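Researcher: Sequence recovery benchmark, item below. Answer with residues only.
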């Protein structure tokens, strides 16, 4: 299973989402701990207030045991008991407070009976019982405050540990993120920049390493594709210069030999020989003119200056004119036209369409060195008008077909023995595309080739 490289966008999204989750968790944790600490603080303060009032109530009871008139003290004790009822918040404290109230009531009742002469009232015992009940209430609150403090201490320690763990996690995560960004983003980006600089300095064999995040891999891949394309064009241009020099040398040499035969210091040759020499010169001039036309058309196309003069025409007439042009070019080739009896109407630039067909037929003849049948088929399809050129030549490999319509591309080993500059098919494709059509090839080595042009019947 092949893992897809991580993208910078997805990593940054995950990173920000993680940071958001951590921040939310920390916020919830801090809020929870603060709430618990606040609850502990409230519990301690309440316990302290309860203990303080219990002690004051004990002092008031002792004062009431010796006072002649206890009514003022009794009212004060009642107020403090009412406050104690407001401070207790657990069932245990409520039970203890209820016991305190019962014991205080029993003390006041015993004291009243003793004043009435009841010797068995025992107010001192009732006082000790009330004081003991208040001690139990006070001790219970103290124990509750101590438990709350211990619980708060544990939460404080847990918060400190969690804070340290969070700080370590953030530190490790930040270090890991910096390392990942450096390894997957900065270094690949620097390598791409260096590769571009070296390529711009003339080292055209340099390629960028396709590594890092998917965005940088895509940039490196596009740079490598561009570099490969430029390298192929550079090699093609170098081959073009050699091919042009070779193609110019042959006709110029032939013309020079022809001119040498009619040098001023020599008698003129016989008329048949002179006509043959002039015919040779004419063919070489036509060849040079064809090369110059290809160069000019290529330059116009690259400059976006290809112009079409559209008119209504019969595709059969264009094909017949092409057959007429090449009828006497090679005795070893049989040129055949297959077309319907009715006109095949087409809105096009007839001169440019003839140029396309001429390029295709010329190639069919050149790349059929042993002769054979070259057929032009004119027909109609649902897409529009179809023009097909079929030969029985050496064929084209699949590798050559991929770049056949690029400028300065020629076929395999034949480029050394067959003249041309590799612009004819490129110009033909651009002319066909300017008409809104398409051109394709079907071929195999040793099985000939079929070039097909499909053009719409009309073009705005």
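Model:
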């Amino acid at each position: 299973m092949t893992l897809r490289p991580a993208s910078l966008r997805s990593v940054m999204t995950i990173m920000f989402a993680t940071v958001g989750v951590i921040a939310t968790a920390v916020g919830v944790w801090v809020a929870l701990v603060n709430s618990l600490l606040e609850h502990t603080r409230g519990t301690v303060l309440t316990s302290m207030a309860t203990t303080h009032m219990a002690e004051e109530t004990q002092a008031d009871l002792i004062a009431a045991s010796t006072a002649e008139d206890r009514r003022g003290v009794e009212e004060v004790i009642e107020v403090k008991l009412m406050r104690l009822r407001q401070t207790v918040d657990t069932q245990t404290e409520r039970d203890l407070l209820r016991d305190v109230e019962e014991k205080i009531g029993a003390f006041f009742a015993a004291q009243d009976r003793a004043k009435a002469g009841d010797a068995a009232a025992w107010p001192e015992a009732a006082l000790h019982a009330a004081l003991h009940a208040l001690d139990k209430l006070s001790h219970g609150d103290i124990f509750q405050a101590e438990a709350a403090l211990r619980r708060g201490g544990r939460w404080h320690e847990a918060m400190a540990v969690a804070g340290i763990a969070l700080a370590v996690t953030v530190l490790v995560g930040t270090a890991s993120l910096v390392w990942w960004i450096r390894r997957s983003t900065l270094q690949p980006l620097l390598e791409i920049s260096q590769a571009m600089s070296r390529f711009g300095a003339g080292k055209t064999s340099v390629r960028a390493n396709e590594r890092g995040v998917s965005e940088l891999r895509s940039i490196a891949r596009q740079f490598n594709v561009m570099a490969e394309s430029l390298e192929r064009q550079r090699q093609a241009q170098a081959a073009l210069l050699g091919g042009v020099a070779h193609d110019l040398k042959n006709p110029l040499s032939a013309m020079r030999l022809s001119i040498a035969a009619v040098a001023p210091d020599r008698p003129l040759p016989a008329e048949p020989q002179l006509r043959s020499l002039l015919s040779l010169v004419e063919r070489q001039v036509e060849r040079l003119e064809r090369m110059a036309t290809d160069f000019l058309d290529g330059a116009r196309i690259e400059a976006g200056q290809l112009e079409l003069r559209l008119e209504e025409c019969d595709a059969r007439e264009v094909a017949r004119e092409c057959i007429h042009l090449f009828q006497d070019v090679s005795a070893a080739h049989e040129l055949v036209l297959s077309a319907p009896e009715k006109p095949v109407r087409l809105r096009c630039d007839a001169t440019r369409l003839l140029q396309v067909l001429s390029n295709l037929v010329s190639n069919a003849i050149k790349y059929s060195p042993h002769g054979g049948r070259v057929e032009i088929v004119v027909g109609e399809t649902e897409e529009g008008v179809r023009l097909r050129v079929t030969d029985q030549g050496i064929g084209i490999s699949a590798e050559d077909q991929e770049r056949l319509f690029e400028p300065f591309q020629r076929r395999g080993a034949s480029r050394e023995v067959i003249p041309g500059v590799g612009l004819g098919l490129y110009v033909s494709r651009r002319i066909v595309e300017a008409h809104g059509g398409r051109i394709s090839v079907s071929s195999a080595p040793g099985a000939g080739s079929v070039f097909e042009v499909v053009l719409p019947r009309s073009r705005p």
